[in-house]
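Shipment paperwork, digital attachment
Item: protein structure file
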Amino acid sequence: MRILSRAPGSRHLTPPTATLPEQDERHAPAWAAALGDQYPFDSHFMEVEAGRMHYADEGPAEAAPMLCVHGNPSWSFLFRRQLQGFAGEMRVIAPDHLGCGLSDQPERWSYRLADHVQNLVRLIDHLDLWNVTLLVHDWGGAIGLGAAIQRPERIGRLVITNTAAFPSNLMPGRIGLCRVPGIGRLAVQGFNAFARAATFMAVERPMPRAVRRAFVQPYARPRSARATWHFVDDIPMDARHPSWETLTAIAAGLAVFQDRANLILWGEKDWCFTPAFREEWERRLPGAECHPIPDAGHYLFEDAPQDIERHLRAFLKAEDVL
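Attachment content:
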């Protein structure tokens, strides 16, 4: 994996210079280098207010872009197959939210939904993306749709996978335990329990050991697991929560995408984003093409990669993107 810098709005790549900040050394940690062929993508970074935001960017500069937005506790590794499988025909971009993957992990930052949204808006503007296929998963739904609502003219179509971008009173017990004061943070951030558990609980098919390690390693130390805890803490269940207003505004803005060609792919055995969430998406995006995947869990990209590839490719061909 190489570290590259990119000028705003440019596909020209330049090697880093000796004057790069000392913190940049963290962008090539040993665990990332050990991924080898599992994550063979060049690393790019964009400055945001609280640090440097990492993103993979593969494919021809002139091709229609696919922007893949991950959730918690994953990172751009989740979309490695899209980065490889579609890069010959599209420009595939997969960022890591601040605090996640190969991005900086600032100690003093809000980690609130609104700020993640603004970082993604900056990336869309920074890369000057148009006719975007926006693929979202988990927290990536609220973040990605939050950014899309601010830049609707740049979004061509949505691909919705096991996510929400609207309030819900459904809180799985396993998530609720992670929010118990004191104990929850100790488990999630102190012992990386959330990321570790997800590699077993979010799939129906056992992950290979190397894949489990790739999902867990970015958050292996308490200081690098801040984001996983803050994402759990930032789930707004009522109007008293700091992110409630942000989420309700995103939900209200979803209607602007009803006239687009949209695709819903759903792992039906997800115990967190259950089929009830899929049904809500179908109500909010009437006319969307929908493919429930019966034997896939929350990490449907791991459980059913061939189904994802087939449905996504057919959808993009029908949209004349491929």
